[in-house]
Please model this.
Amino acid sequence: MARQTRERILDTSLAMFNAAGEPNVTTNHIADELGISPGNLYYHFRNKDDIVEQLFSRYETRIDDALLIPEDRLPNLEDIWLQLHLVFECMWAYRFLYRDLVDILARNRKLKLRFARIMTRASASAAALMRGLVRAGVMRASDSEILAVAENVLLVATFWLSFNAVRGVKTDVETLDLGRGIHQVMVLLAPFLREAEREHLNTLAGAYSA
Amino acid sequence: MARQTRERILDTSLAMFNAAGEPNVTTNHIADELGISPGNLYYHFRNKDDIVEQLFSRYETRIDDALLIPEDRLPNLEDIWLQLHLVFECMWAYRFLYRDLVDILARNRKLKLRFARIMTRASASAAALMRGLVRAGVMRASDSEILAVAENVLLVATFWLSFNAVRGVKTDVETLDLGRGIHQVMVLLAPFLREAEREHLNTLAGAYSA
Model:
């Protein structure tokens, strides 16, 4: 029962952070929304930062899973699409984090270190996938090109939601938004692909550019 | 004399915002730093938002200049380097804006509209430069590729400083930092360049990747 309340608090906090932005939601708002007393909430969590950290742990587990790459065979273009879908869906599920990323990390040193670790892993994962594509003959790029592209892949993915926000694009149409983000990442790889794969990609991408 | 005080307030505010982050600096801090009374500061500016808006106007003039492209001849690769240097130097001069971009724009609807206009102009400018390179025979890309690359150019440039911040990279070494940012933008164009220009670019870029 206590465990159930704890999970409900986390679920509700996540929904409220995503809808209104984490800085605009207080623990009182969360208790109100759940119809529990602030005292009950504080029985489960020390403060709002504690809630943010627990949500970050959920996010971390999910993004770590999304970054796994096939180890028993060479990757193909579908692996990249799948990984990007998993990563973007995870980012969307925890979009409050990406919306105020610089701020949240500046306020919490522990999360900053944990996020830096995720970025390092994501960078290694992107580079490993591209090296696999080169070995499979699907992509042609030097190692320094791969490292530079991996850096841009990270940057474009991490700030895709912020970019939409500052351009005045509404970010509540999930599928369209994520599809366009994935497309923008694929654009980074496209020019290094073999002609057939590049054309295949352009066809797939056409669906998002409407 | 009044005009001089006004300019001094703006210069000092900019330096303090850049050093500490705009949300962490109050009008009292600014008056203190200048050795003037808060009353004197309020004679010149209604509130901190007023100061931010005036600094935004300075930034807007400078970035508009940086986005001008040669109209009387086809552009070359040096034009792109020059424009990127001007744009990144302007971003660095007003880095408080880029550090808390999503937040500052969410708080001020007028600035949000003005920033969206700058983004539209920057996107058009990037696309026009690339189309010029295609006409000059230096670049090979379809128009849909150019539009997608222009979008990524904007995203990488706009969030370069934020990206460094969340990766835990110190952002107070101006030249190295801006050079690496410019390099990451050039990486977006590189695969579409003619072989000679691509090699030239890789040589130039080598200086930054240390």
